[in-house]
Design goal:
With 95 residues, this protein is mainly alpha-helical. It has three helices and no strands. Helices cover 78% and strands 0% of the residues. It is elongated, with a radius of gyration of 22 Å.
Amino acid sequence: MPTKHPELTPDQIEELGRELDELRNRVRADLGDRDVEYIKRVIKAQRGLEVAGRGLLFAGFLPPAWLGGVMALSLSKILDNMEIGHNVMHGQYDW
């Protein structure tokens, strides 16, 4: 069954554009020191997890150390890709 898409008039499209521009301006105006501190904390945590994970893998002949190392490196990579890289790629932290 084909999906019906609503047809917008040129005026509705312009109004939507104005609303989206207003939303963007509000969000950009709200960015500040709190956001800078947040991303710096996340970067510090990500790097700490990476160093700790690699250190634990160095002692990987012990199964708990190996497991802890894998978990720390996994979380580090998740933070790097999803929280840091994704947001920075979209210009959220363009200071």
